[in-house]
Amino acid sequence: MKCHRIDEVVELLQPAWESDSDLNLLQFLAKLGQEAGFEGELKDLSDEVLIYHLKMRGSDKNEAIPGLKKDYEEDFKSALLKARGIIKE
Question: Has residue 14 got a pLDDT over 90?
Fold first, then answer.
């Protein structure tokens, strides 16, 4: 499982870092943390924060987070009826 996260971080980090290639890796990670609203020390910045921030970095602020989007329902009434089994998916 950890290898998958490492691969995902590297895959997402490479193109983003290339756009800010004047920064070293720690400076770039600190910049990503600040953009994500992380206020702790850099050593406490989790890979989950990096992954989701890099995935959502160029998107609209109101767009659903990947992973949660599959469960997203625009209409509350339809979501409730599906949850109760009245409406089949």
Answer: yes
Spacing of C-alpha 61 from chain mean position: 12
Domains of the chain: 2-61 (1.10.1580.20)
For residue 79, give both structure tokens.
Answer: 């979501």
Higher per-residue pLDDT: 5 or 17: 17
Whole-model pTM: value is 0.66
Q: H/E element holding 73?
A: none
Identify the helix (H) or strand (E) that includes residue 88: none
- 3-state helix/strand/coil string of 50-67: HHHHHHHCCCCCCCCCCC
